[in-house]
Amino acid sequence: RPSASAASSSLASPSAAIATSTSTMASTSAAEPGIRISDRTRRSSLGLRCMVLLMHVVFVGAVFLLDSTLDRRIREEPWHIGAYGALVLITLVQYFYTAGSSPGYVIDAMKAGSTMHATYINTATLSKQSSPNNGSLNSPLSLPQQQKLNPVTSTSSWLQRVADLYPPGSSSRDWTCTYCRVIQPPRTRHCHDCDKCVLQFDHHCVWLGTCIGKKNHCRFWWYIFEETILCIWTVALYIDSLRLDIDKAWYDVSFSFNVIPLVTLL
């Protein structure tokens, strides 16, 4: 790792990078309170999640409605139906948990670093202003006030942290996003759907309505695992129900209603 002085000397235009990142943090903070249900992207994401929930209800509900042996199986194998219902519930909870999670946006990491910097300054000020004789304490500036007074220092700290992750001699222009103008650590990409830079960007999942990145990568794979088991189990239940109705004609109502969901699910 390069030293602090070496990393600083290797930056092509650190002042410009700091200025753009500082303005980006300020504009993002001002825009965040306006993000509500009126946002078109947010409405689309909520509509997609409701559709996924409806798909689970329809396909799982069809299993219980079309299975002619359901009453007997509940009496003989209650654990089987209970385990299937528990898997459905766990999968849906994991879906909404993953869909509502943050993938790890660069702007959030910059704000977290700014808060840590302000906390350090605040603690140092407290120790200096406390009187050793009577223990009296003068109240320093609050964290939001310090962040407003010195945003360049915290952004400079973020720039230095990013510089330590790159090889010596790299240019800061190669780290700055051309869309949102933030300084990108390695493996960071700009998502055009979310319009933000994501740490360790993997992809933007349309079905979840969010990006998959550093913070929710593990949650995403847990959801994929649970959803796969649920789909296999549901297909097996449909096939088992079809096996019992195989002697019926293809135009029979119950037989057709079993085939249609199975083909759609596959």
TrEMBL record:
Gene Ontology molecular function terms on file: protein-cysteine S-palmitoyltransferase activity
Domain Palmitoyltransferase DHHC per the UniProt entry, residue ranges: 175-255
GO cellular component: endoplasmic reticulum; Golgi apparatus
GO biological process: protein targeting to membrane
Residue intervals passing through the bilayer: 46-66, 78-97, 220-239
Enzyme class: transferase
Membrane topology: Multi-pass membrane protein
EC number(s) stated in the UniProt entry for this protein: 2.3.1.225
Top-rank taxon, per record: Eukaryota
Subcellular location, record wording: Endomembrane system
Catalysed reaction equations from the record: L-cysteinyl-[protein] + hexadecanoyl-CoA = S-hexadecanoyl-L-cysteinyl-[protein] + CoA
InterPro entries per UniProt: Palmitoyltrfase_DHHC, PFA4/ZDH16/20/ERF2-like
Pfam families: DHHC
Keywords: Acyltransferase, Lipoprotein, Membrane, Palmitate, Transferase, Transmembrane, Transmembrane helix
PANTHER family attached to this UniProt entry: PALMITOYLTRANSFERASE ZDHHC12, ZINC FINGER DHHC DOMAIN CONTAINING PROTEIN
Comment field on protein domains: The DHHC domain is required for palmitoyltransferase activity.
Record family assignment: Belongs to the DHHC palmitoyltransferase family.
The protein's name in its UniProt record: S-acyltransferase
Species this chain originates from: Oryza meyeriana var. granulata
Species classification: Eukaryota, Viridiplantae, Streptophyta, Embryophyta, Tracheophyta
